[in-house]
Design a protein that fits this description.
Elements (H helix, E strand, L loop, with lengths): L5 H10 L7 E4 L27 E2 L16 E2 L21 H9 L7 H11 E4 L18 E5 L4 H12 L15 E4 L1 E2 L1 E2 L2 E2 L2 H6 L8 E4 L3 E8 L4 E8 L5 E5 L4 E3 L2 H11 L2 E2 L1 H6 L6 E2 L10 E3 L3 E4 L9 H14 L12 E5 L11 E8 L4 H10 L4 H10 L4 E9 L7 E3 L10 E3 L6 H18 L2 H4 L4 E3 L14 H11 E3 L31 E3 L14 H20 L6
The structure holds flavin-adenine dinucleotide (FAD).
């Protein structure tokens, strides 16, 4: 197995349930840091040693006002992968998303068929007042603890404002519909992050047939060019030696949306002309790295708001939070300020029953200059933009109301930078290349303004604010040209990229893996991670990636049981 990340940890754990199989998991990173345990510290993990720190290539029309004109693309580099640095929000795709995958020829991936895999992972812990949640949608006793994130008072204010603005409140974001606003579920256990390595690998670490090599980076898969069968995995070990390991059954690639396509291309599987540019011998010409889809978000819609009496940024409060956290595992350090509530809405451009905008909230405490800087750096804001945020948050809290394009039309791609595995691939995110995306985002912005202008918000002295972005300064606030300028300058990634090893039947010219996740035309390689999603789901991608890991393991078990592993 390559990559012990979100999906990889699930697959390795489940495959090693078969005592006769030997599972070797090679992970580039180390154990997750202690800091990653504390939910409130999540944003600060970006740009740390646990982050690959990928960045997009500069492209006209998006990410222009960010540092170096690039969008940040953090990805976890540790056991547990991105589940060790992400926001932990556990939101499944909608029924329509999976039914669409199945309708495209991906047998076995309809909602009714994947729901059991979501439930299989889950140990859902309802609070006393959530006993009525529909257990048709939830599992219990699985390795992954899912529970409602603690909502601080800002989250309750925002939920009230969203309701006043006319949106529905949902009891359960993972219930029958995602259209509306709700308190979020997250993978948290006893106040700490429940990443997938903790959930799936920790409890089985003494299995004799599960071997984990950390701090070692796979450089390519060596494939027999005649039989087109994967034979060997090559990796650079922690002592910087190139090593090889023979494959007895098959190799599962779970290196994520950026690295799985890179590794396939380095191994000779990818667009023929592109591989030839770098002198890589072509084993199979497939559209690896294409079909890149991400949820693009907008950071320019914000307001100041009267601070909560309970939550203030000063040394005494920090002591209180730490004391509460250490003694009870509750309070501000177990959650995010505002983000524990979110919602999905439909604009006039929505194509079907699915929401085309998600609204996230990020709160910055008054006077928290460090918090503003950490937040700004995570999204690549420039120093001058961060400074303007710090200025406006001197006396009041600041709330970013962040619309996210959940059904983007724009597509990007991932290309090799060179044939050297240590060179990061080139990421062309392609944000806002479709004007429909600009129009939809504009509707999302208006929706956030509607929420800001409610009585609930007014009662907390809300004032709309303008972030300083030099190139948009000459434009009138609140006009279409102002918003479009801001979108193209400080729009950024939600970090939900998928699709670069697209799943689809052999009749699909863009497909890289088949519905059993085997690479088309090559024996002995499957891909199991976020990169296989044929079409991005409308919700964030974490829960669905875990489901992909669960389902992949079951498919592999069934295939080998039926003696069909390599065919
Ligand atoms: C900052 C951030 C916040 C997010 N927040 C949320 C959220 O709150 N909710 C949500 O739904 N989604 C969220 N997401 C998205 C979600 O977390 C990801 O879609 C998902 O975790 C991806 O899982 P994966 O298994 O595809 O890849 P990963 O979890 O990234 O796993 C890939 C693994 O492979 C390893 N690897 C890569 N290359 C090699 C190599 N050559 N050799 C060996 N190992 C290798 C990596 O180190 C990593 O461990 C967030 C993402 C980010 C980055």
């Amino acid at each position: 197995m390559v990559g012990g990340g979100t999906a990889g940890s699930v697959v390795a754990s489940r495959l090693s349930e078969v005592p006769e199989w030997n599972v070797l998991l090679i992970e580039a990173g180390d154990n997750p840091s202690l800091m990653s345990e504390i939910p409130a510290m999540a944003v600060g993990l970006q740009k740390s040693d646990m982050d690959w720190k990928f960045m997009t290539e500069p492209q006209k029309g998006s990410c222009q006002g960010l540092r170096d004109q690039r969008c940040n693309w953090p990805r976890g580099r540790a056991l547990g992968g991105t589940s060790t640095i992400n926001g932990m929000l556990y939101i499944r795709g909608t029924k329509h998303d999976f039914d669409e995958w199945a309708a495209a020829g991906n047998d076995g991936w309809s909602y009714d068929e994947v729901l059991e895999y979501f439930k299989k992972s889950e140990d859902f812990r309802p609070r006393a007042n959530e006993k009525d949640l529909q257990f048709f949608y939830h599992g219990s006793g699985g390795p992954l603890t899912v529970q409602r994130m603690e909502s601080l008072d800002l989250a309750w204010t925002l939920l009230g404002a969203a309701k006043e603005a006319g949106y529905r409140e949902l009891d359960d974001i993972n219930g029958p519909s995602q259209l509306g606003f709700a308190h979020m579920d997250a993978t948290i256990i006893n106040g700490t992050r429940c990443n997938t390595a903790k959930a799936f690998l920790g409890p089985v670490k003494n299995r004799k047939n599960l071997h984990v090599i950390k701090n070692s980076t796979v450089t390519r898969i060596i494939i027999d060019p005649i039989g087109k069968e994967a034979k060997t995995v090559e990796f650079r070990s922690r002592d910087d030696k190139l090593q090889q390991v023979r494959i007895k059954k098959e190799v599962i690639l779970s290196a994520g949306t950026v690295s799985s396509p890179q590794l396939l291309m380095l191994s000779g599987i990818g667009p023929e002309a592109h591989l030839k540019e770098f002198g890589i011998k072509v084993i199979k010409d497939l559209k690896v790295g294409e079909n890149l889809q991400d949820h693009f978000l907008f950071l320019g819609s914000l307001c100041s708001i009267r601070s909560s009496e309970k939550l203030q940024s000063n040394p005494l409060s920090s002591l209180d939070w730490s004391y509460e956290y250490l003694t009870r595992r509750t309070g501000a350090l177990t959650t995010f300020y505002g983000t524990s509530v979110s919602g999905f809405i439909k604009t006039k451009f929505a194509l079907d029953d699915r929401p085309d905008i998600q609204i996230f909230f990020f709160g910055i405490l008054a006077n928290d200059t460090n918090g503003s800087a950490v937040f700004g750096k995570a999204f690549g804001l420039t120093d001058e933009t961060i400074l303007s945020l710090q200025e406006m948050s001197k006396e009041h809290d600041v709330v970013f109301m962040v619309p996210v394009l959940t059904r983007p039309s724009s597509r990007g791609k991932i290309l090799l930078r060179s044939a050297n595995p240590s060179d990061y691939p080139k990421i062309y995110a392609g944000y806002l290349t479709s004007t429909k995306d600009v129009d939809t985002m504009l509707e999302g912005i208006y929706a956030t303004v509607g929420i800001m202008e409610t009585d609930v918000m007014r009662r907390r002295d809300t004032r709309r604010r303008k972030l300083f972005v030099n190139v948009c300064e000459g434009l009138d606030f609140d006009t279409r040209s102002y918003w479009e300028c801001m979108m193209r300058n400080i729009g950024a990634s939600s970090f939900h990229a998928v699709g670069t090893c697209k799943m689809g039947p052999s009749s699909d010219p863009e497909a890289v893996v088949d519905p059993k996740l085997k690479v088309h035309g090559v024996k002995g390689i499957r891909v199991a991670d976020a990169s296989i999603m044929p079409q991005i789901i409308v919700t964030p991608t974490y829960a669905t990636t875990i489901m992909i890991g669960e389902k992949a393991a079951d498919i592999i078990k069934m295939d080998w049981h039926n003696n069909d592993g390599l065919h």
